[in-house]
Structures are given as C-alpha cells and as structure tokens.
Amino acid sequence: MTDASRARNGGGIFSAFEWMVALRYLRARRADGFVSVIVLFSFLGIVLGVATLIVVMSVMNGFHRELMDKILGFNGHAFVQAAEPPFNDWPDVTKQLSSIPGVTLAVPMVESPAGVSSQYEQRGVFARGIREEDLKRLPGVAGNVRDGTFNGFDKAGGLAIGARLAEQLGVGVGDKVSLIIAKGAQTPFGVMPRIKAYPVVAIFSIGMSEFDSLFLYMPLAEAQAFFNRGNEVTVVEAFVKDPEKIDDLRTAVGKLITRPLMLQDWRERNKTFFDTLQVEKNILFIILMLIVVVAAFNIVSGLTMLVKDKTKDIAILRTMGATRGAVLRIFLIVGASIGVLGDLFGFVLGLALAKNLESIRTMLNQLMHLNLFPAEFYFLSRLPSIVEPGGVALVVGMAFALAILASIYPAWKAASLDPVEALRSE
C-alpha cells in the first residue's frame, strides 16, 4: 500500500486515496442496494429536516415581527391614564409627554366598547375618539386608507372603520351605521341605550384581521359627547422611537409630570402574547430538530451496514498498508459527505421556500381551491416569512455536527477491525 501511503503523506487531513475510496463507497451498486437506500434516506432526512427548520423559523420570525410592528404601530408604546379622575388636564399631559426626548407622538383618546349596526349586520367594536391631526399621524393607520379620506375628519362627524368590519357590515364610504351603547340617558323608566347614526367617511386596512374588524375611529369631541365624558379623555397613548427603551420614558414621566398617573407600557399589555410566541418557536425548533436527529441515526445504521458489507475490503486495505487512521477517515468522509450534501440541499430548498412562501400559498389556494392560512384565525392577511442569518447558520451547523457525530462510531468500528480475523471469517 505504498502508493496509498504516499498519497496520505502528500498533504491535507484527508488524502486523495481516502477520498477516492470514500466516494466509491457512496456510489450505488446493485450488490449494495439496501445500504444505498439507507444512505439515501439519511440524505433525504437531513434535507427535509434542515429545509423544514429554516421555513418554520422564518415563519415564526415573520409572525413575531409583523405582529409586533402592527400591534405597536396601532396601539402605541405607553399608555398614560389618570390615577385620580377626572382626566380633564389631558392637554397639559399631552404637551408634556410630547416634549420628552424620544417621544414621536402623544395621542389623547376616548376609548370605549360599543356596538355598531347596519341594515345587514350587527357587531361589537372598540370605539376610539381621536383628533384629526393625530389620526393623520397615527402609525399603522395613516397611509393605510383603502377608501375615503381623513381630511375634514373632525368636521365631518363620521366614522373611520376597518376594512373587515366594513365587509361584515356590508357598508362603504358614504353609508350610515348606528353606534350603540347600553348606558345612555337617564329616564323615569331607567337608563336607556344610546343610539346614533354616523356616516362612514373612511375605510382603513392595516393587514391584521382582528384590528381591521374590531376598531373604529370617531372625532374626539363627538366621542366625548356620545360616551358622556364631558371634557375628559380615558388615555393618552405615547409612541417612542425605540420601544425597547420604554423604561427611559417611565423615568422621564416620573420626573416631568407631577400629576398622579398610571403608566402601562407595551410589554405589560402584550407580555403573555409575545412570550407565548417565543415558547412556540422554541418548542417547534426542538420538535423539528428531531427530524435531523432521526436522519443522523439513519447515518449510523447505514454506515454500520456499509462497514459490515465492506469487511473484506477493509481487511485487504489494512493488509496492503492502510493505517487504522486512514480507514477511520474514509468512513468519516462518507458520513460527512451525506451531512454536507444534505445540509447544502436543505439550505437551498429551505431558503427557496421561505423566500416565496406567500406566493406558494396563493398558488395552492388557487389550484386546489383551498383557504390556507385564513386571516380570521391567524390575525394576519398574508403569510409572513423573515429569514434570519443567525438562525439559518444555527440550523445548518447543528445538522452538520449531528452528521459528523453519527459517523464517528461506525468509522471507529471500521478502523478497529482485525484484518486477520476478517479474512479468516471470509
């Protein structure tokens, strides 16, 4: 085995001879058909595991980002309420909040649940009274008007409603709907419900089905009158440049505003929701990683059977001068090749699917007349997908590491074969 030895000493961790033998073992032959099938399934398992992990993690990232952007853009980052009602001094509080560095917008609102009805349907909604100047600057709503306009919103005395709510009520811009609350005027017969008709002046669509079907906006002065609030507001919502630094706003509010206030931030309001998303992401990662683990076990079984099948060949190689290390490296190359190729194909397939997921969903819906990812169940009108390089690198690295680890035991068994005993048994 002098030629092989010279090739081995020629340089590199793996010699040309070791590569040649390993690649020959990877090639399918009729006599080794069963072994080749196991190797093929190991390869496919890694491909599917890596691709599935990339797609699922991208979708979870997209969910988190889209929901966070829409929830925070629609609801604000901090919510200031009066600790001692009435909240009549809201203009001063709004002005003071706006002067704090990092605050981009402070919006006084009257918020209240209500009912809304048309001649076709009735729905429960969350009504918000807001000034026209604030509505036009409100992130998540401004720039997402599907029909109508916010111009003249205060004077028009109408409602701006979400697109899904408009569909459910069967109304459009110019149509009238009735706003209803249970607590109206006091009469000798008790408290009577309050009902008033308003024209629809604008329809907005932010792309989050729950918000598009639940919220409506009305002029602040009209809301104060309709909900018996006098000159009060119920909350002042603050938007900041960096939501992650909301604690700085808390400190600044405590120093600047002496009026007793209650301040709640977006983390407190949405903590359970975002924590649940993170837990689901972690659990899915662990579950789907088991696909790659199963594929790694297939590599163990496939290489073990390959070693069993090539016992005579290994013995001949050893008697011709191949060292235990050379045999070990040959089978490590076989296992690593399955892992690298599986990783590569899974990486390409996963990225292709993750980048075109919404197009694939739309195509399947059209071809098979399905409704995959219905907006009323998943809150979003489209399937979000964001590929994070760090997450992809973690998946690819773990899959490759598992393939290498799975190759060590069969390679060690091959290197431990006694050539004399192996040839004698033949």
Automatic annotation (TrEMBL):
Keywords: Cell membrane, Membrane, Transmembrane, Transmembrane helix, Transport. Residues 42-254 form the MacB-like periplasmic core domain. One of its GO terms (cellular component) is plasma membrane protein complex. It comes from the Bacteria. GO terms for biological process: lipoprotein localization to outer membrane; lipoprotein transport. It is a multi-pass membrane protein. The chain crosses the membrane at residues 34-60, 283-307, 328-354, 392-412. The keyword Transmembrane applies. Pfam families: FtsX, MacB_PCD. It is found in: Cell membrane. NCBIfam families: lolCE. This is Multidrug ABC transporter substrate-binding protein. It comes from Methylocystis bryophila.
